[in-house]
Amino acid sequence: MDSPAGPLAALIARAAELGGGAAPVERWNPPDCGAIPMEIKEDGTWHYNGSPITRERLVRLFASVLRREADGSFVLVTPVEKMTIAVADAPFVAVELVAEGEGASRSVTVRTNVGDVVRVDPDHPLRVAQDAAHDGFVPYVRVRGGLEARLTRAAALELAELAEAGSDAPDAPLGIWSGGTFFPVASAEAAR
C-alpha cells in the first residue's frame, strides 16, 4: 500500500529499508587481478562458480563496488584490487516503476533489485533496444556510471502505457517524458 506522501515516497522508503548505495569506485585505480568466476545473469541473479548467491546483503555489497570499464567490461573494484566478472545483459534489474505527472511534466522513477532509486532524466537516460526474439522492446535506464538496469517485463509494460507522441507531427516518434526530457522508444511507423 502506498504511503500518505504518495507512491514515489513509498518507493524510496522501500529502497532505504533494503540499504544500498555505491562506493566511490570511479576514484579507485587498483591493479587488475584478472577474472573471477562470477556472473550476473539476465534476470539479475548473481552467481559464483555456477551457484547462485542467495544472500541479499552480499549481492548488494558486490553491487556497491561494481564498475563498468571504458572497454565495456564489468569489474568489482576496491581500493586495492579489481576483478573482472561476466554480465549477461545489464547488471541490474528495474523491479519497480513509479510515474507522477503528465506529458512534459512527468517524472518516472525506478527502483532496482539492489536498492538503487533513480529518476529517468538526462543523467539517468532511458534507452530502448529491440528484442527480435520476442518482437518487442527492451527498456534500460542508466543507474550510475556505465551501469544500467533492464526493466522487468511488468515495469516495461507500465512504461509502454506512458508512451506518447513527441509532438503533433504525423511522423513524430513515440516516447516517454521524464525529468523534462523526451526519450524516444519507437518511431511512429513502428508503433503502427
From TrEMBL:
It comes from Acuticoccus mangrovi. InterPro entries: DUF1285, DUF1285_beta_roll_sf, DUF1285_C, DUF1285_N. Residues 23-90, 91-185 form the DUF1285 domain. Transmembrane segments: none annotated. This is DUF1285 domain-containing protein. It comes from the Bacteria. It holds the Pfam family DUF1285_N.
